[in-house]
Specification:
The complex is a heterodimer. Chain A has 2 domains: about 230 residues, 3-Layer(aba) Sandwich (Rossmann fold), CATH 3.40.50; about 80 residues, OB fold (Dihydrolipoamide Acetyltransferase, E2P). Chain A is built from 9 helices and 18 strands. In chain A, strand 1 and strand 2 form a beta hairpin. Chain B is about 75% helix and about 0% strand. In chain B, helix 5 crosses helix 22 and helix 13 packs across helix 22. Classes of the chains: A alpha+beta, B mainly alpha. At the A-B interface, helix 2, strand 6 and helix 3 of A face helix 7 and helix 8 of B.
Chain lengths: ~325, ~550
């Protein structure tokens, strides 16, 4: 199903949380919405799920206006942060809940629940108490429960929030595979660039209640366009244009645009040397701004060095607030 | 020292020290609580030293007494159901929302609960009694009794359920909604089952208080609309049938015991069911939320405020016409009082004196007990906990009646004026212990470790960490004891001498006299008691700002 948000606004107590948000997601697409905390990501999902009504704007699913359709009739599945499994029900009853609500008869329900538990790799877990599940198991039960009533759209709210770093990659691939297998359109919300890149082909960046940029991860990396996007994409050296003598208000100075050699345009003091992702780097203080550069070797903190910047490689940015 | 044993230990009392600390509470509760209770049971089960159940047979087969027992249970069931039904929406608002005046309303809900039951009776006597301002007299009906009980117990449901409700993640209900449940179904299939333990445990408390209701029934009931509690009193004081009163008291004790067993079991379930984080209440954000919260808050304020406001207003209506302070002047000097009657103002003095002594006794016994609960061997602590809590489940009338029939040996204490504060302290001790011992238990062991790393030895740790943190909850316990003593009525009716009445006794006696002057003075005295107890509860609530939801 295709999803469209047109110019959606929502304010709490006069403070805008969603500020003219427009978003389009193609049928069967896996989309990530990435933003810093407080950007309105969870609210966006609640509006899509029908748990909040926007102050203005429309929400369309497959061309149908669902803005006024309440959550229980909207058929949009939401996987909650911390999963929100019902503690008074066992695994089977949790997964069966949505089927019971939509009136699926008992023999079929049992079959569907068994199939779903099999799908998420938890066959035989039906009678388990949800409190006894590990973080990853609870999450897969939550996914099965969300999928059970066959929603038209699946929303995932920071699903890796409670998962150990070491288990994240595996679980992410599992979720991706399962969502692809059922073929449902999905929106994955996270503050983490690596998760967004691993899950989706297209990322929308939400900053202060607005979608500032939508694109494929390489596109956002090469052309962030905004300071906020550059920082969220994890780019190093997002600095004032003036620091490197550029016209733009702000720029990304790619690490490989800087060479440390005599006769460069800038001079600075080495602050520290470090080793990051297999590369030796120097952090250099240039007029009060720290720049990261490849470490050609042989420098120590406190030394004054000269930097040459390849202006052609600078990426100009518009300044927005982050 | 064991290698596995932590170097900074939770202070622990040796068996000898435990026995020494326990001596006072055990002797006190043994002589003033257990011994009178046993005396009642013995008196009820035997005649002239032999076991004889004939009184029981008489009691159980007597039509009037059977009607009383039935009415007692039925009114308690209805009161409980109505209190829960009315309390739930307010509990929801308290659990989920933040709104202006929330703290004030939260304290206000507690006022009826700490109000002496006799004053609660006065509130509704004034509203719907023979001298009703709206000219409707429904005393002696199920309706007015249930109304008074709901008013009195409202806070138990609101506080008990809302503190539990706040720990239920609102995402659960949202999840149900996205899975196809409409709002009603989501509440019924998710929130209600999760709330069930809290509803059940608060219900059993409401049932208990309604089951043993005394002051309310005495003012609002009649000979058939009455409780076992009142019947015990009537049999013992009006008909001097001590055997029948004893048998009734034993039957009531069995009933109360059953309720307490259920309550204890439900409370353990509540505590262990699940531990979600408390979700911070938020401002109502949508128009429909604002409408609901506004309606419920207004309704709760009116329900609590109108009866209390009318009591105060009525106390200002002068017997000689117009509005003024004549009723209050009459407290100080009552015109044409009979020779046997003292000035009501003396009752205020008596009450304050008794309350002062009750606070001291309650604190000494309560603190010693709390120390044992916190620092003695766990098994000893559990046994003591149960023993000390028993007076809470024993009705006031039973305590007073027990004093009457038991405390003539070894020396006849029944004429001692000290018995009144002692009885009050008995009722208050469970509250003191319940206020203080959770604080002892909640002291984070890391704080003791921190103190130790800063150079404190184990007794310095106790003095600078444990004792300091407990001081505030001790004040709360003292305030509870004071408020309880000021309002205690059921036990006091048995043991007060005619010359030393307390405020509630003076109110009751004034109501028994004809004319509008004594009635006005009773109203004024009720307001005095209301103001004192309301002030105390607000102090308690301020002292406990950090313990949201505790009763």
């Amino acid at each position: 199903m295709s999803i469209a948000l047109n110019d959606v606004c929502l304010a709490y107590d006069g403070v805008p949380v969603l500020d003219h948000v427009s978003l389009e997601v193609a049928p069967r697409e896996r989309r990530a919405v990435m933003g810093p905390s407080g950007a309105g990501k969870s609210t966006l999902l609640r509006v899509l799920a029908g748990l909040e009504r926007p102050d203005q704007g429309r929400i369309m699913i497959d061309g149908q206006d669902v803005t006024d359709v309440p959550a229980h009739r909207r058929r949009v599945g939401l996987m909650f942060q911390d999963n929100a499994l019902f503690p008074h029900l066992d695994v089977r009853a949790n997964v069966a809940y949505g089927l019971r609500m939509t009136g699926v008869s008992n023999p079929e329900r049992t079959q569907r629940v068994d199939d779903l538990l099999e799908l998420v790799g938890l066959g035989g877990y039906g009678t388990r108490n949800v409190a006894s599940l590990s973080g990853g198991e609870a999450q897969r039960v939550a996914l099965a429960r969300t999928l059970a009533p066959q929603p038209r759209l699946i929303l995932l709210d920071e699903p890796m929030g409670a998962i150990d770093q070491a288990r994240k990659d595996d679980l992410m691939i599992q979720i991706r595979t399962i969502v692809d297998r059922v073929g449902t359109t999905s929106i994955y919300v996270t503050h983490d660039r690596l998760e967004a890149e691993a899950y989706a082909d297209t990322i929308s960046v939400l900053v202060a209640g607005s979608v500032v940029r939508t694109g494929a991860p390489p596109d956002l990396w090469e052309r962030p366009e905004f300071v906020s996007v550059a920082k969220l994409m994890g780019r190093a050296n997002v600095v004032d244009g003036a620091v490197v003598g550029a016209d733009a208000a702000a720029v990304v100075v790619p690490v490989d645009a800087i060479t440390i050699e005599p006769g460069g345009q800038l001079s600075g003091t080495v602050v520290s040397t470090s080793f990051r992702d297999g590369v030796a780097e120097l952090t250099v203080d240039v007029g009060g701004t720290n720049l990261r550069a490849r470490d050609p070797g042989g420098f120590a903190a406190g030394e004054v060095v000269s930097l040459r910047v390849d202006r052609a490689k600078l990426i100009p940015l518009a300044v927005d607030q982050v | 020292m064991d290698r596995d044993r932590p170097l900074v230990t939770r202070p622990q009392l040796s068996p000898v020290a435990t026995a020494a600390v326990l001596a006072v509470p055990i002797l006190f509760l043994g002589y003033f609580f257990a011994y009178p209770l046993v005396s009642i049971v013995v008196r009820g089960l035997s005649i002239d030293g032999g076991i004889d159940l004939s009184v029981f047979k008489d009691v159980v087969t007597d039509d009037t007494l059977r009607r009383v027992a039935t009415f007692t249970v039925v009114q308690a069931l209805i009161s409980t159901a109505v209190t829960v039904a009315i309390g739930l929406p307010t509990a929801w608002v308290f659990a989920r929302f933040d709104f202006p005046g929330k703290r004030l309303l939260s304290a206000a809900t507690l006022v009826p609960f700490v109000l002496p039951t006799l004053v609660v009776g006065m509130v509704f006597l004034n509203l719907l009694g023979p001298r009703s301002i709206v000219d409707i007299d429904i005393t002696g009906s199920m309706g007015i009794i249930v109304l008074a009980h709901v008013f009195y117990n409202f806070a138990i449901v609101v506080r008990g359920v809302s503190s539990f409700w706040a720990r239920i993640d609102p995402s659960l209900e949202s999840a149900a909604r996205t899975l196809g449940a409409n709002p009603t179904t989501a509440f019924r299939t998710v929130t209600l089952p999760l709330l069930a333990p809290a509803i059940a445990s608060t219900s059993s408390l409401v049932f208990l208080f309604s089951f043993t209701s005394f002051g309310v029934i005495l003012l609002l009931g009649d000979l058939s609309a009455t409780t076992i509690e009142v019947e015990i009193w009537r049999q013992a004081t009006a008909f001097l049938r001590l055997d029948v009163a004893s048998a009734l008291a034993v039957l009531q004790l069995v009933g109360v015991g059953l309720i307490l067993v259920v309550y204890g079991w439900l409370e353990r379930t509540t505590a262990s069911e699940f531990r979600h984080h408390v979700v911070r209440p938020r401002k109502p954000s949508t128009p429909s939320e604002r409408r609901w919260v506004g309606t419920i808050v207004t309704a709760a304020m009116l329900f609590l405020g109108i009866p209390l406001g009318l009591l105060i207003a009525r106390s200002l209506a002068q017997p000689s016409g117009g509005y003024g302070l004549e009723n209050y002047a009459n407290i100080v000097s009552l015109p044409d009082r009979s020779a046997a009657f003292i000035e009501p103002i003396e009752a205020v003095g008596n009450s304050l004196r008794f309350a002062g002594i009750a606070v001291v006794i309650g604190l000494v016994v309560g603190m010693l007990t709390a120390v044992v609960l916190a620092y003695a061997d766990r098994r000893v602590a559990r046994g003591i906990d149960t023993f000390v809590m028993l007076p809470l489940g024993t009705s006031a009338v039973t305590i007073g009646f027990g004093f009457l029939i038991a405390l003539d040996r070894p020396v006849d204490l029944r004429t001692s004026v000290l018995l009144i504060p002692i009885a009050h302290a008995l009722v208050a001790i469970p509250f003191v212990v319940r206020s203080v011992s959770p604080t002892f238990a909640s002291i984070q062991h890391r704080l003791r470790e921190a103190a130790a790393t800063l150079g404190a030895n184990r007794w310095q740790v106790f003095a600078t960490v444990d004792a300091r943190l407990v001081a505030r909850s001790m004040l709360v316990g003292a305030a509870f004891a004071f408020a309880i003593s000021m309002g205690e009525f059921g036990a006091t009716t048995f043991i007060a001498r005619p010359a030393t009445p307390t405020i509630p006794l003076a109110i009751f006696r004034l109501l028994g006299r004809p004319g509008s002057v004594p009635y006005g003075a009773a109203l004024a005295l009720s307001v005095v008691l209301l103001v004192i107890t309301a002030a105390v509860i607000i102090v308690i609530d301020l002292l406990r700002r950090d313990r949201e939801g505790a009763l």
